Amino acid sequence: xxxVTQLGSHVSVSEGALVLLRCNYSSSVPPYLFWYVQYPNQGxxxxxxxxxGATLVKGINGFEAEFKKSETxxxxxxxxxxxxxxxxxxxxxxxxxxxxxxxxxxxRLFVKA
Amino acid sequence: xxxxxxxxxxxxxxxxxxxxxxxxxxxxxxYMSWYRQDPGMGLRLIHYSVGAGITDQGEVxxxxxxSRSTTEDFPLRLLSAAPSxxxxxxxxxxxxxxxxxxxxxxxxxxxx
Lengths: 113, 112
Hints:
The complex is a heterodimer of chains A (about 110) and B (about 110).
Chain A: E1 3-7, E2 10-14, E3 19-26, E4 32-38, E5 44-50, E6 56-58, E7 64-68, E8 73-78, E9 87-94, E10 102-103, E11 107-112
Parallel strand pairs in A: 2-11
Antiparallel strand pairs in A: 1-3, 3-8, 4-5, 4-9, 6-7, 7-8, 9-10, 9-11
Chain B: E1 4-7, E2 10-13, E3 19-25, E4 31-38, E5 42-51, E6 54-57, E7 64-66, E8 76-78, E9 87-94, E10 102-103, E11 107-111
Parallel strand pairs in B: 2-11
Antiparallel strand pairs in B: 1-3, 3-8, 4-5, 4-9, 5-6, 7-8, 9-10, 9-11
């Protein structure tokens, strides 16, 4: 069975500071990993995904994530936070079928001016 | 460019009532799924479909029915609403495999 744990339900950073959102996964098969972002009253949209190959994945809006198999982690980072980054972020794992994606509980990012 | 369309956006039901949440996509995606989003619990998979005529249960299927008669539509039926079904419901579609899921705007359901 697959599962995802996001460490920290809320993260607060200052504008311009590093953003680090933590995600650990459990999977009995090679995992496919995703980060989605949800703005208020919106659906989710894909930030980035890891399938195979390069373990450092770059996404939209300056975000990137690194797949570390030894640590079963897929942490999301952004060097410099912007006010518009304030949203809820979800880490997700899939068995590759695409339709049985398991989501973490989410981390709400607050950005202070 | 509609993508995934959910209706209604908001709904209030009384306990015991039934209703159908509508989901339609115009991207010719084979895979469609329904999730519910509750505070602190992320998104949990209710039901999914891998094509017209094929559906299966997700993590939390009890109290919900689905059918998939066409590629475009994937309605979610609440048979007898309960307060525990108060949630935000999201429909998603994808081409399957390693492709991303595209989400609708959500339906906020309150059962009183």
